[in-house]
Amino acid sequence: MSSSSFNFNATNGKVTSPIKLAHIVLYTNQLDKMEKFYVDFLGGHVAHKAPHQMSFITYDDEHHRIALIEAPSLKRKDHHACGLHHIAFTFPTPQALLLAYRQRLVQYSIKPWWCVNHGPTVSLYYQDPDGNSIETQVDCFENNEDATAFMEGEKFRINPIGVDFDPEDMIKKLEADANWDGWRKREDIGERGIDSVLMPA
């Protein structure tokens, strides 16, 4: 559609959706430490830095995915306050997800604080130096329609949280059989609520 024929008065109905989520911006009081963490964590690089002010980090063809703004007077994140819970990054396969887990662990001693099969995704949660949580995940379903159907079903109603798992155990099973798809299947454990999730300190 050319710009001359675009109808800017079509204001009824659903709001026009964006095409993607572009980036996340975080305030910090320790810019250099946070910058190193996200470069290491994402296998990324600094696209631009203004010392003692801000840093822009990317890991793909986007000009930046994470931006950090330094404000020395800020205090550490309070998990008992309203706000963002976590940001999430998707990997294409469980092998890629778990290799990144091993690389972070071996090279930087970065450990996940929670590993869980939510049902729609298998996920590992981490914490950055400021206490923000980060999810790395792989989709369990081949398409969004099946994932949505699962989330609308009875099993997810009973347990919308998921089932914890050991990433090292999953690695052993994938090493023994590269075609093992048991990682997709979530065990039925009955009801589970958000109060069962222990947030990191």
From TrEMBL:
User: Is Oxidoreductase there in the keyword field?
Assistant: yes
Q: Name one GO molecular function term.
A: dioxygenase activity
Pfam families listed in its UniProt record: Glyoxalase (PF00903)
Fetch the Gene3D superfamilies from UniProt. 2,3-Dihydroxybiphenyl 1,2-Dioxygenase, domain 1 (3.10.180.10)
Q: Where is the VOC domain?
A: 20-139
Keywords (alphabetical) are: Dioxygenase, Oxidoreductase
Record keywords: Oxidoreductase included? yes
Q: Which domain of life is it from?
A: Eukaryota
Protein name per Swiss-Prot or TrEMBL: Glyoxalase bleomycin resistance protein dioxygenase
